[in-house]
Amino acid sequence: MKVLIADDENISRRRLEKFLESMDYEVTSCKDGIEAWEAIQSENAPNLLILDWMMPGMDGLEICRKVRKLAREPYTFILLLTSKSEQDDIIKGMEAGADDYITKPFNKNELRVRLRAGKRIVELNEELLAVRNDLEKQAIHDGLTGLYNRNYMSEILDKEFPRTLRYQTDLSCLLLDLDYFKDVNDTFGHAFGDLVLREFANCLEQEARKIDIPFRYGGEEFLLLLPNTGIAGARNVAEKIRTACEKKTYDDGNNSTTVTVSIGIASVKQNQLLESKELIAFADKALYRAKTEGRNRVEVYMKEYYEQLKDGKSIDNKDFRYLKENLSLVLEKTKRASIESLKLLARDMSDDAYKQHNHYVGQYISLIGERLALPPSIIETFKRAATLHDNFKVLLRKNLKNKDKVLNTEEKIEIEDHPYMLSELIGLFDFFSNEKSILLYHHENFDGTGYPGGLKENEIPLGARIFTIADAIAVMLTERSYSKKLSPEEIIKELADNAGKQFDPWLISLFFDIIEKQKLLPVPIEVLTKAKERLREVS
Questions:
Q1: Nearest CA to 148 among 157, 1, 9?
Q2: Which of 17, 160, 207, 220 is labelled catalytic?
Q3: Pick from 250, 261, 480, 497: CA 20 to 30 A from residue 341's CA?
Q4: What SS3 state is found at 110?
Q5: Is 199 a catalytic residue?
Q6: pTM greater than 0.85
């Protein structure tokens, strides 16, 4: 290990230098404080310092203060050499940032012991730093491909998008999806499928430019952000990636295949975007078009094209592909109209508490969905399920209205039948098939104690797990005849206490991050800290 000594007394310094070399330390020797400070600031400077208290130019205490102000990692251990033995002087040295001291003339055995302790402190700090760096890397990287993950993509986009608007530059997004990837898994197995994902990720990194930022978006979907790049540049990068992928063969020694990729492109300037989430949403629409037009192709989101579809105007070359897109838009309109009709039907039977509850549920589903960087279409599906749930619940409400007493057995059975009743009602609307599983399983508990299926953990659909949390928060925020409104501190405690039981602890952790970042609930930081500690125990 390297050690730096600074002493203006030549004989004392040389004696100390020889002693340290005999212990196999690599020694940097300085004759005064200024020379020592220059050496400390250099690259690969020692993390063990032995400083004389009294030196010309800069004394040991001043160097201590400067070193601590640097807050360098790994930790720097400082041992003061001093002729001072008064307790007040020693305290002064420690307050300046020294870790230990030894009086002159030093005893070799005492110095050996103190240096051994300092060396161990530095080594432990290096180990902890390595662990922390590894954890930080895991937090932002996808475990399979090594690319940045979806959560980190949201952070980067939140930084790049405002910068793009501020400086009037451009930002493009490529959304990439491996074609027929399910067939690869079904034919060759998931292990081979993982190999394809890893090697495609490598290919993506190689073909992208140095300024481009690649992410694994989820499953077989990848995303590439291109700062300071317009549509033309983005298309060139996309075609380069598509061509390389088309030519690539995936081989594990036993199986071999090729896999093509479809790519959708959108840019801030081309589409005159004002919100970051629109960039991904529009790239997703372009990707969908690339898929419907035959796959293994690049498509750019064209606002005029989609406006024509929404307005129902005729376009050239209508065929089955365009018919599918038109029908998708019609279906979206049908869903919205159906929900609005249900709202009207339930309006006269509902109260202000119901409206406030529905508002809270939608708000928290959006916040959690955006924190997970889910596509807008998925978030809308979750919110639709919540709206359907609340409206159906109002329409189903009979003798449970305004209950202020404990439910009897018959009433409990009726409550437990609600998921089936909701599922049966949603079955009347075949186009709400994605929302159906959320309504059926929103009473499942993370630990498997819920109903109707006794599902647990990731067996429960993500939408149902998110809805359960959002609905519970909304209930706790709303004053009702049968339940009191809870304070923000009580809500945090309830969520933390039931994480791992009723709620998904990972989603609760994300929600606490949202609260802290967006000041969503007025709770003291110590309350959140305690709740997060509780979550770590559960995890």
A1: 157
A2: 220
A3: 480
A4: helix
A5: no
A6: no
